[in-house]
């Protein structure tokens, strides 16, 4: 196993903003490395244009555990220079990278510390499921937040008082910042740099790292609309293979009920109970999922895709696609078309 040890030279310099990044056990390396590289790049650029040590960032990795060693989901273990309870000076910004949601009790001690330390910070943030830590600490009560799109329903169920929106890559509510899945931590870090030192500095850091200062689109572009594994034995799961072969057709609720050998009333009731959506909404999402597949993997024209998926004409498909994916079909194709496609 590869071991990484961070430098323990973390004495503060004049007016440097102390950025504390807390990598949770089992986090992805990018949850940590993305924001770390953004703040480091910005700090170096700021120090090239100003008196040494006057502005910029001091970045500190702090362990949330009693040990300083953190094992990541990427198979890499590294050693933090300090534990969070050893930080004896004011934290400007703290970012929680990842969190173990399989056993929330594991992080209780850290969340208690977070609850007590938060009032002394200028701002606090999270990357990916690090949002759970902020929620467990009570920091997100009554606020708006985002997290990895895959956990949006679970998060909302656990914390009904938090307004969850997993469309944006990151959100801000007061001095609390939350970001979506993994790479969204980079988007958040760039936004924080821009907030601190302006667009030019953030843009320079983005260019240095070959990143977009602000990505177009939303997390919904990456999400899966249909969670088929959760409804294999449901009416929808049993109907889906047949529906996939008949997307060109109208697929009315009456036809679906008849194919299931059920009364219309009973079919609607059971379908909604099992899937959480109406049959019509399910068919629409199924059509969008198939359209995504064609956009990613085929050379079919927009007209052909619209026809094959039963989405009407190009205008109708674009309107429906935008409603679900927050991006146009053409923009989606440019972003997600297979990487094996020959480049002209």
From TrEMBL:
GO function term, MF aspect, one: sequence-specific DNA binding
Stored InterPro entries: Class_I_gatase-like, DJ-1/PfpI, Homeodomain-like_sf, HTH_AraC, INH-QAR
Domain of life of the source: Bacteria
SMART domains documented for this protein: HTH_ARAC
Alphabetic keyword roster: Transcription, Transcription regulation
Transmembrane segments: none
All copies of domain HTH araC/xylS-type, residue ranges: 237-335
Keyword NAD assigned: no
Matches recorded under PANTHER family: ARAC-FAMILY TRANSCRIPTIONAL REGULATOR, HTH-TYPE TRANSCRIPTIONAL REGULATOR RV1931C
Protein name per the record: GlxA family transcriptional regulator
Record organism: Chitinophaga agri
Lineage of the species this protein comes from: Bacteria, Pseudomonadati, Bacteroidota, Chitinophagia, Chitinophagales
């Amino acid at each position: 196993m590869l071991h990484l040890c961070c430098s323990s030279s973390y004495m503060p310099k004049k007016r440097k903003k102390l950025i504390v990044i807390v990598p949770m056990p089992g986090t992805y390396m990018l949850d940590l490395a993305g924001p770390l590289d953004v703040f480091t790049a910005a700090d170096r650029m700021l120090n090239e244009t100003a008196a040494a040590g006057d502005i910029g960032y001091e970045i500190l990795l702090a362990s949330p555990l009693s040990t300083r060693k953190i094992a990541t989901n990427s198979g890499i273990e590294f050693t933090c220079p300090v534990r969070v309870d050893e930080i004896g000076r004011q934290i400007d910004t703290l970012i929680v990278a990842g969190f173990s949601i399989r056993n929330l009790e594991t992080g209780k001690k850290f969340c208690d510390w977070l609850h007590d330390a938060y009032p002394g910070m200028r701002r606090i943030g999270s990357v990916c499921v690090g949002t759970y830590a902020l929620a467990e600490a009570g920091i997100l009560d009554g606020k708006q937040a985002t997290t990895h799109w895959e956990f949006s329903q679970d998060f909302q169920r656990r914390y009904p008082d938090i307004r969850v929106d997993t469309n944006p890559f990151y959100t801000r509510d007061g001095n609390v910042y939350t970001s979506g899945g993994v790479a969204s931590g980079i988007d958040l870090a760039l936004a924080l740099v821009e907030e601190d030192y302006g667009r030019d500095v953030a843009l320079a850091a983005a260019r240095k790292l070959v990143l977009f200062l602000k990505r177009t689109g939303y997390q919904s572009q990456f999400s899966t609309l249909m969670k088929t594994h959760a409804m294999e034995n449901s009416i929808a799961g049993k109907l889906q293979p047949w529906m996939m072969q008949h997307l060109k057709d109208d697929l009315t609720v009456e036809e679906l009920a008849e194919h299931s050998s059920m009364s219309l009333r009973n079919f609607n009731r059971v379908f909604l109970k099992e899937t959480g959506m109406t049959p019509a909404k399910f068919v629409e999402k199924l059509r969008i999922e198939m359209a995504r597949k064609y956009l990613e993997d085929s050379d079919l024209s927009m007209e052909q895709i619209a026809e094959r998926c039963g989405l009407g004409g190009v205008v109708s498909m674009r309107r429906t696609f935008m409603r679900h994916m927050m991006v146009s079909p053409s923009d989606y194709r440019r972003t997600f078309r297979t990487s094996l496609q020959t480049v002209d």
